[in-house]
């Protein structure tokens, strides 16, 4: 079966949880080729196995090189493995029967696919959405099981109260939409950096500036204003990365976007460097 058809079948199985991004009416899958709503708005599945619902192309700073570096760091180096394990445990500790795991800001899909692999149940369907078509294209090429959508977090094609789990991993949030699509017993799983996250890289690239230190207070306060926090947990650990992996790390993070070549080479050439991962995992529910 071709990737287009596999993706269309995934959408068909959860079609009652989807809605048209234009008129917000119900949709159906026709001939394993297109999503079509009652008003005949039509969105075709690409041959690579994703669907594009963006009204127009969007330019982002995320390119193929960044996504390739990100995939290497996530899948080959397994930099976030303890975080993925924790998220999988959270999902397994809640009923995942006939449930959606919506990755809001999925990029090239490695976080979502890794977590789905760890949960390992056919009753949980993954949906990855990102505004970067390049990221979604790479996700669809590499991972066939989730439904991959190029779209905007301000207008996800999901029905009200359709998602048991919303994953927001180092990505901006849209809390008004999160609250709309979150199921009555659903949870938001938001992952944000804590103060020690990539501190070695931050200190190298931002030495002598305010950028070398980081606090997540603003992100936490914004979240508290919009949703009900249920539980918070901090995970901190270190991992050694060689020179090639360090260059990938710099390439995948916004911290490296404004670094010059000399800074990058100086940091990466040290090789086999201990890197700190310091994450804040926050579980939240929609406000009553």
What is the topological layout?
Layout: H1 3-13, E1 27-30, E2 34-37, E3 42-44, E4 50-52, H2 64-76, H3 81-92, E5 99-104, H4 110-119, E6 124-130, H5 133-142, E7 147-150, E8 163-169, H6 175-181, E9 182-193, H7 199-205, H8 217-226, E10 228-241, H9 243-252, H10 261-268, E11 273-285
Helix pairs in contact: 2-9, 3-4, 9-10
Question: How would you sum up this structure, described in words?
Answer:
InterPro entries: RlmA_N, rRNA_m1G-MeTrfase_A_prd, SAM-dependent_MTases_sf. It holds the Pfam family Zn_ribbon_RlmA. It comes from Jeotgalicoccus halotolerans. The protein has 288 residues and is α/β, with parallel strands linked by helices. It has a single domain, classed as Rossmann fold (3-Layer(aba) Sandwich). It is 34% helix and 27% strand. The protein contains 10 helices and 11 strands. The protein has helices at 3-13, 64-76, 81-92, 110-119, 133-142, 175-181, 199-205, 217-226, 243-252, 261-268, and strands at 27-30, 34-37, 42-44, 50-52, 99-104, 124-130, 147-150, 163-169, 182-193, 228-241, 273-285. The strands form 2 sheets. The chain has an 8-stranded mixed beta sheet, with helices on both faces. Helix 3 (81-92) packs across helix 4. The longest helix has 13 residues, at 64-76. The N and C termini lie far apart (44 Å).
